[in-house]
Amino acid sequence: MRRNVWIWMALLFPAALPAAESQVIHVATEHVSLIYRTGSDGRLYQIWMGERLYHASDWTHLPEQGEACLTHGMEDYFEPAVRVLHNDGNPSLLLKYVSHETKLLQPEVTETVVCLRDDRYPVEVKLRFVAYAGADVITAGTEISHSEKKPVTLYQYASSLLHFDRARYFLTEFTGDWAHEANMTETPLAFGKKILDSKLGSRANMFCSPFFLLSFDRAADENSGEVFFGTIGWTGNFRFTFEVDRQNRLRLLSGINPYASEYALPPGETFRTPELIFTYSAKGKGHASRNLHRWARHFRLKDGEGSRLTLLNNWEATYFDFNEEKLITLMDEAVKLGVDMFLLDDGWFGNKYPRNSDRQGLGDWEETKEKLPNGVGRLVEEATARGIRFGLWIEPEMVNPKSELYEKHRDWVIRLPNRDEYYFRNQLVLDLSNPEVQDYVFSVVDRLKTRYPGIACFKWDCNSPVTNIYSPFLKDRQSHLYVEHVRGLYSVLERIKAKYPDLPMMLCSGGGGRSDYEALKYFTEFWPSDNTDPVERIFIQWGYSHFFPSKTLSAHVTSWGKQPVKFRTDVAMTGRLGFDIRIDELTPAEQACCREAVKNFKRLEGVLLNGDLYRLVSPYEGDHAALMYVGERAAKAVLFAFDIHPRYAGPTPAIRLAGLQPDKLYELREINLPPDTGSPLRCHGRRYSGDYLMKVGIPVFSNSHTVSHVIEITETD
Question: Which of 47, 105, 209, 221 has a CA 20 to 30 Å removed from the CA of 537?
Fold first, then answer.
């Protein structure tokens, strides 16, 4: 991401201001400008959000689009970004510009902080922007503080308010349910409000994902047109409000969902909102996705530029029914498969209430003696002796009512007094607003790692939203629960990261229940869905791919669906490859196919996990899907093509590739082939120019059902 020095000079020290009486604030990346200007009334207004404007002299021509931080109680008629109640009962707030500062945080990363203040009440709001120049990503957050004598009540506290003025707006949302996540739906926005939100607490995005994309003037296209991608860095309740006014201008409010969450802010303290993370592109959805993927790998993900562990999970092979010897046998299968790690899933803990189902034992993190008489230590030793690593499933934020933990510490549980308890998946949520509970949740990881340092990875699950919403710890501050619970989770994760900085962790959350970039500071990947049927996963992973790079998407070969093993394996290779299947029940040819896929995945990991993604043929537009990953300098690429359920004699157009160098020659070779099987593709073993591959393309699709092809593309002389 090397850029010219002049770009940084322009970012940090912009040209002369357009008018002496105005202050102009330019938040910029290499190709994006977000510009604010003070008005004659001393307030701050957004005047541009879109493609970068390089000439400051042009900024004088830009009209005001809307106030930077709309507040409640004054002359605006629309949804406010900030709403407060002062000590004297006055519910109004009027913010005026005070100052701003831009500084370099690290190469290609600048921070701009704008201070706004009410001139009648001692309330201050700071708008904080961080611009990542080379990735064309900007984050926006808000800090609220005051010096009134008593707490000020915050009723609304958006992270960001952005204004758009276009002819038409199209919103794509990503919604679903368990095993049916991240379904893409695009709708036009007209006058009024559209809200995307969650009120579920810990498993916040079980129904509605915390990300969206906007397209301007026309429906979103993969390779052209203006698009805006936004996502919130918050592992809890969120809300996006899209409000089109009578003049067809769009206001976008993003942040924590203020539902049941009014917050009493003491004097001298600062309320910091989570970040809205966004990118803008004039080149369509694909370009915007690649912006976010590069940003995530370089700046946000835990071990974002590192490799990922391939694995064999025991869940579908055993469920709760296992013992030491059965698990050790599965380790031998992992060795034969060639993966890096064996991961033990749910069911290994609890003695008074052994974890033989999801109805008991959750919270009692001692090994079940009948199943594991020699403890987890024996499993770590057996895995190490076989040259593989050992990982372990935990769900430390939750508790079954039928557990020793619940019997001893009912006061640690989020539960209503004087009400019958409601259970989701037979469990309740521990109250992470309570520091004692935070210590306990941290101790689950710390005790296991201290006792068994050889544990190489944790699969961290979270199967229940927050129910029975009451905190014994918060007492008369119940409206703080949703916020403080998430902050408590981050406190725990910070402690784990500080003590075990190199520990990989998978964010599971019942499949797709957590997928946000604040959590991914602490986790190397997440589990997109419990649905591992490969046809369904093509759609699910397609949706997530708009915001998350492939290395964050855990994708396993399982027994869900009855498609050929090759098809299942090829789909899983478009994420972080893993297996959750009885290997010994596969035929020798199927086992060989899986072993070959593992070898190819490891050999091509640099391209598959760190390359640029190009979505070529959408499963939403027909009976086929295709995508490819392109490595550094376009010297290596991998194409995935899937025939899903085409009709007889349906069209099978050539696939036009993308991201290659037009003047280079490339050799194509199909991989992941079953043993002693040749490729049926005409392109196999042939050479083409990048120009030909991108303009003419290659015939790969067929009218067969659930057939897949993986083609390695290599630059050649």
Answer: 221
